[in-house]
Amino acid sequence: MSEVMQQIIADTQSNMKKAITHLESELTKIRAGKATATMLDGIMVDYYGSPTPINQVANITTPDARTISLQPWEKTMMAPIEKAILASNIGLTPQNDGTLIRLFLPPMTEERRKELVKRTLAEGETAKIAVRNIRREGIEQIKKLQKDGLSEDIAKGGEDQVQASTDKHIALVDQVCKDKEKEIMTV
Asked: Cβ distance 54 to 44 under 8 Å?
């Protein structure tokens, strides 16, 4: 098999792995009944005019399963942190006592659990679409090589490898979503 073909297949597999990694990072933001510091990942605080990740302006801890505690490095950051949390739309209201900001997670209802499962499945579907788009791009590159003189047998073998990788990654997306669904539905 030609080096170009091997590179196309390797790039396709690498991009599919990135899609799975992205799915896993998105699913960590969906809370499954217990508080984690990763729920605040992606929240940016206005730190003297520049957007800064929340974990770089405050110490984030989880004292118990339903509480997230933030202790800002500077007292002046209390208001901007509260404002950023409210603006992030994660469904939590900050409680400020002057030195700490606490976020209390409400108990999970059956309805809320089902809503989170739907969100998980939607993220999974987005990941599957990304994997399929990567497959399509890989196969298009192989067909272009075939037009440029690559033999039909080698091109077919490359397409089969890309399809096998796609099937493997789609199954992995399903497994990751199933694991998250089980985690969410566990009371």
From this structure: yes
List, for residues 124-164, the tens digit of each pLDDT value.
999 999 999 999 999 999 889 888 887 888 888 889 999 99
| 139, 162 Cβ separation under 8 angstroms | yes
Q: What are phi and psi of 132, to 5 degrees?
A: -65, -35
CATH code matching the domain that covers 3-29+109-185, chosen among 1.10.132.20, 1.25.40.10, 3.30.428.10, 2.40.50.100: 1.10.132.20
The pLDDT tens digits of the residues spanning 43-86 come to: 889 888 888 888 888 898 888 878 889 899 888 888 888 888 88
- pTM equals 0.70
More confident: 143 or 92? 143
Contact yes or no for 108/33 (Cβ under 8 A)? yes
Using CA atoms, how far apart are residues 145 and 120, in angstroms rounded to an integer?
A: 38
Task: Outline where DSSP puts E strands in 35-180.
Answer: 44-47, 50-53, 58-64, 67-72, 94-96, 101-104
Q: How many beta carbons lie within 10 A of that of residue 74, not counting itself? A: 11
> Could you give the CA distance from residue 4 to residue 142 in angstroms, rounded to a whole number?
9
DSSP structural state of residue 67: E
User: Do 138 and 146 touch, CB atoms closer than 8 A?
Assistant: no
Task: Identify the CATH number of the domain defined by range 37-104.
Answer: 3.30.1360.40
